[in-house]
Prior knowledge:
52% of the residues lie in helices and 13% in strands. Strands 8-7-6-9-10 form a five-stranded mixed sheet. The protein has a three-stranded antiparallel sheet with strand order 1-2-3, covered by helices on one side. It is α+β, with helices and mostly antiparallel strands. It has four domains: 2-94, no CATH class; 122-210, no CATH class; 242-333, Ribonuclease H-like superfamily/Ribonuclease H (Nucleotidyltransferase, domain 5, 2-Layer Sandwich); 342-414, no CATH class.
Amino acid sequence: xxxxxxxxxxxxxxxxxxxxxxxxxxxxxxxxWNCGTLCDPLNKDAIKCKLCGFICKAGITRLKxxxxxxxGNGVAICKNASKEDKAVCVALLENPKEDKIAKRxxxxxxxxxxxxxxxxxxxxxxxxxxxxxxxxxxxxxxNPINPEGPFLNMRQxxxxxxxSKERTHSVHQFCARWMYESGVPFHSIDNDAFExxxxxxxxxxxxxxxxxxxxxxxxxxxxEVERTKGLLKKQEEESACNGCSVMIDGWxxxxxxxxxxxxxxSKEGTTFHSSIECSTDSHTGQFIFDYVDKCIEDVGAQNxxxxxxxxxxNNLAAAKLLIEKRPNMFWTSCAAYTIDLMLEAxxxxxxxxxxxxxxxxxxxxxxxxxxxxxxxxxxxKCKDIxxxxxxxxxxxxxxxxxxxxxxxxxxxxxx
Length: 415
C-alpha cells in the first residue's frame, strides 16, 4: 500500500508540475494568446507579454496593440517584438475593423432598399381619407416618446437618426418589452427583414397602425408567397441553364409522423420544393420512385442531373427504377449519410469502442444526478460536456472532443 501511495503521489506531483508550467490563458481561440499569458488565474485582464515581460491590465486587445507597435493607443510598445509578431497583431486588429465597416455598409445598403413613396399629404393605414402631415422639423427632438399617451404624442422614431441616447433607450425598451411579452426569440433582432421593417416605420412617421390578424393570414401572406416565387426565378433560370440536383430527405417529427421532403439544389443555392406526410404508407422502392418521379416532372426532367438520397435499401430499389426510366440521370448517395456510417464503423473498433463506452458511462452518471450536474457546471463555468450533433454518431465523437477540451477542469471536479 505504501508503494502504491508513493507512486500516486509522484504521479500527482508530475501532473501538478506540468500544469504549473503550462501557460495560463482564457478559454479562447484568439491567436493573440500566443504572445501573452495570464498573470493571475483570478484576474482575467492582467496579461503578461511573453516577449518582453510587460504586464497589460486591460485585456488581450491591449496586448495586441502593445505587440503591434501601433502608436496612439495608450499602451507601451513592445521592444522585443519581431516583424512577424507585429504583422500578426496588426492583422488581428484590422480584421474586426474591416468586419465592422462591411457590416455598416451592408446595413446602409439594406436600409437604402426600403423606400416609402409619399406625397405632401399622407394617408391613414386602411383609410381613403387624406390627412395633413403634422410633422415639424424639431418635433422629433422635443416630443417625448410615449405610445400610451395621446395620439399627437405617439411617435415612431428612426433609430439611426435619434440624437438623444435617452430617447433611443426608450425605443429600445418598448421593442424589448414587445419581444419579452410575445416570446420572440432574441436572435430575431438580427433578422434583415426586421431591420427593414424598422426603417420602413421610421420613414412612415407617426400614426402607423400594424396589420390585423386577417391581413397577416390572408392577403399579406399571399402577396409574400408571390414575392417568394419571384425570387426563385433566378434559381429556375440557373437550373435551366446548368442543371440541378434534387435531394430527398425522410425524417420523423416529435409526433412520430413520417415526412418526406423534396429540395432542389443549384449553383444559386438550395430551395424547398414540397413535402408529403407518409405515415400510413409503406416506404417501398416503388412508393419513393413514384414521388421522386412526380417531383422531377414538376422541376423539369431536362433540368435534373442527379438525385441525392441516403443508402437505405428502399432508396436503392427506387434508384434502379429511376435509372431504367431515366438513364441520363445519376443517383448519388448522400455524403453526410456516408460520413455518419463511417463514424459508426469507427466507433465499433475495439480501441474506440472501449473509450466511447467509458465516456458514455461518465456522462450518464453526471447527467443522471442533479447535484453532480450542478457541480460539473460549476467547474466548467456552466458549459456542458455533451455536444449534440446532427446525428447520433456525430454526437458521440463531438462529446469525446468536448471531454478532451475540458479534461483539466473535470480532473479538478473529480478530485
